[in-house]
């Protein structure tokens, strides 16, 4: 049975707090695991969340600030210690190549796993598989940063009333799905397009075209909301979003489930982030993330 869910490992920006670890987000997508922005302490948070190194297939780093990448050293060494039996691919901004190499080889260890480095230096498709297409879009931050987006290929939904009208039933339903035509009846005549699921991960950035491109039509958008709206000048200065800005992006982009995260240590509670997101006009499902939260990706439309 396929599983698609987000496992939140950490939600703090810049520095961890008593209740928030540095960033870390695992997306389970069918049989694969994609780890986004492993900050310091991610390896321990994985243990607490029941996530094993064997679950990881891709590492996706948005940018090389410490709260988004210092955990790479421990995670990579754990992948090798546990002798993960499949290749692991790492995506990160090419401009940070030297940082990735320093973290990958921060200390001595025995390499047992092939980690393929596929750095990002432009918008576009990074990888394709049967269940998703991984894309990247450039963001606006003091250091080069990219957001990531998974897009499931569109499928087709069979329409029982049209099948019945054409006398198609039983094994013949499978035949027309496989072959595209049966007795002069086309697949398009008895089915409709079913949009594939879409997931986006947007971290440190100001508002920019890349944010909207990533969020467009997403079933789930994980997005930073470092500041509350009253601190918007700080957000712009440091290259971040407010809760209201993130929510307006989600509302304008047709997002179904919005996950706010990456909170400044200056704020104690999370209630105001939710209030400001709703005030900005977002009416879909909303999660103000906390460490070890698990959120299922909404079912297909």
Outline the structure in words.
The chain has helices at residues 42-49, 66-69, 72-81, 97-104, 160-165, 171-179, 209-215, 232-238, 243-253, 271-279; strands spanning 4-10, 24-29, 32-36, 58-60, 88-91, 115-117, 124-128, 133-138, 146-151, 155-158, 181-182, 185-186, 191-194, 198-202, 220-224, 257-261, 285-288, 294-296. The chain is of the alpha/beta class and 301 residues long. The chain has a seven-stranded mixed sheet. A seven-stranded mixed sheet has the order 7-8-9-14-15-16-17. Strands 10-13 form a two-stranded antiparallel ribbon.
Layout of strands and helices, then pairs:
Layout: E1 4-10, E2 24-29, E3 32-36, H1 42-49, E4 58-60, H2 66-69, H3 72-81, E5 88-91, H4 97-104, E6 115-117, E7 124-128, E8 133-138, E9 146-151, E10 155-158, H5 160-165, H6 171-179, E11 181-182, E12 185-186, E13 191-194, E14 198-202, H7 209-215, E15 220-224, H8 232-238, H9 243-253, E16 257-261, H10 271-279, E17 285-288, E18 294-296
Parallel strand pairs: 3-4, 4-5, 5-6, 14-15, 15-16, 16-17
Antiparallel strand pairs: 1-2, 1-18, 2-3, 7-8, 8-9, 9-14, 10-13, 11-12
Helix pairs in contact: 3-4, 9-10
Major sheet attributes: 7 strands, mixed
What's the total count of β strands?
A: 18
What percent strand?
Answer: 25-35%
Indicate the mean pLDDT. 96
* Anisotropy-based shape: globular
Oligomer: single chain
Structural class of the helices, strands and pairings?
Answer: alpha/beta
What's the tally of helices?
A: 10
Order of helices and strands: EEEHEHHEHEEEEEHHEEEEHEHHEHEE
Identify low-pLDDT runs.
none
Q: N-to-C terminal Cα separation, in Å? A: 19 Å
Residues in helix, %: 25-40%
Q: Going across the major beta sheet, what is the strand order?
A: 6-5-4-3-2-1-18
Radius of gyration: 21 Å
């Amino acid at each position: 049975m396929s599983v698609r869910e987000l496992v939140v490992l950490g939600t703090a920006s810049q520095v961890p707090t008593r209740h928030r670890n540095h960033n870390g987000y695992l997306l389970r997508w069918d049989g694969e695991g994609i780890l986004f922005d492993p900050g310091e302490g991610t390896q321990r948070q994985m243990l607490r969340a029941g996530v094993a190194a064997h679950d990881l297939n891709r590492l996706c780093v948005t940018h090389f600030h410490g709260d988004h990448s210092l955990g790479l050293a421990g995670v990579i060494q754990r992948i090798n210690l546990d002798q993960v039996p499949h290749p692991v691919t790492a995506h990160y901004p090419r401009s940070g190549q030297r940082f990735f190499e320093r973290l990958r080889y921060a200390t001595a260890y025995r390499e047992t796993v092939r980690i393929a480095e596929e750095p990002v230096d432009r918008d576009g498709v990074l990888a394709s598989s049967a269940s998703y297409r991984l894309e990247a879009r450039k963001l606006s931050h003091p250091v080069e940063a990219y957001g990531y987006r998974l897009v499931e290929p569109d499928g087709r939904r069979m329409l029982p009333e049209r099948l019945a009208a054409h006398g198609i039933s039983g094994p013949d339903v499978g035949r027309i799905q496989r072959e595209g035509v049966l007795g002069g009846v086309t697949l398009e005549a008895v089915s409709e397009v079913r949009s594939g699921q879409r997931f986006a991960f947007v971290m440190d950035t100001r508002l920019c075209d890349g944010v909207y491109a990533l969020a467009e039509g997403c079933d789930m958008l994980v997005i930073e909301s470092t500041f509350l709206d009253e601190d918007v000048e700080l957000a712009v200065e440091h290259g971040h979003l407010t809760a209201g800005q993130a929510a307006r992006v989600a509302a304008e982009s047709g997002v179904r489930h919005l996950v706010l995260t990456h909170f400044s240590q200056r704020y104690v509670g999370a209630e105001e982030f939710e209030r400001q997101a709703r005030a900005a006009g977002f009416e879909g499902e909303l999660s103000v993330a906390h460490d070890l939260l698990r959120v299922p990706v909404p079912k297909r439309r």
